[in-house]
Design goal:
The chain is α/β, with parallel strands linked by helices and 164 residues long. The chain has one domain: 3-Layer(aba) Sandwich (Rossmann fold), CATH 3.40.50.2020. It is 22% helix and 30% strand. It is built from four helices and eight strands; from the N terminus they run αβαβαββαββββ. The strands form two sheets. The protein has a six-stranded mixed beta sheet, with helices on both faces. The structure holds guanosine-5'-monophosphate (5GP).
Length: 164
């Protein structure tokens, strides 16, 4: 968090307007909360909530926007904060939606990156960790809404998924 926050601080230091940090709910809520505390700049925090359309998401990446931004982002510096980039479909879609609003800049910060599963090339400017093709939970990440509160990131094995 410190390294990412310092990097972001350095990169946006000379901008005259507040950086808009956009967390993608729900998964990024813990990451964003920790990350913003290491960004030593005036920032505005906003959130988007998205949900998949079910099967079509797996092929198109089109997601339903459950909560849109409160902020106008036209002409502003925007940093999208994601929990994990997997196929890249969700991020690709979000970047096209936000990019259409003509921000001054639009960058991506993700905690975890699973490049082995990528179906669409997406720019990741700030990356916490690269991980292999495993399903992870904890630190905001869920499986059926469980495990978000774990104070660590764990690999969830198929046989654990249904257990209490
Ligand atoms: P993508 O569109 O890149 O395939 O998927 C992005 C979203 O899928 C992430 O924001 C996250 O919500 C979910 N996701 C992808 N991989 C994992 C994982 O290993 N664990 C959890 N809990 N969610 C994941």
């Amino acid at each position: 968090m410190r390294e990412l926050g310092q990097q972001i601080t350095r990169d946006y230091r000379d901008r005259d307007a507040h950086l808009v940090m956009v967390g993608v709910l729900k998964g990024a809520f813990v990451f964003l909360a920790d990350l913003v505390r290491w960004v030593e700049l005036p920032v505005v925090v906003d959130f988007m909530a998205v949900a998949s359309y079910g099967a079509s998401t797996r092929t198109s990446g089109v997601v339903r926007i459950l909560k849109d931004l409160d902020e106008e982002i036209t002409g502003r510096d925007v940093l999208l904060v994601e929990d994990i980039v997997d196929t890249g479909l969700t991020l690709d879609y979000l970047l096209s939606v936000l990019g259409a609003r003509r921000p001054r800049s639009l960058k991506v910060c993700c905690l975890l990156d699973k490049p082995a599963r990528r179906l669409r090339p997406v720019p990741v400017h700030y990356r916490g960790f690269e991980i292999p093709d495993v399903f992870v939970v904890g630190y905001g990440l869920d499986c059926g809404e469980r495990y978000r509160n774990l104070n660590y990131i764990a690999v969830l094995h198929q046989e654990d998924a249904g257990r209490d």
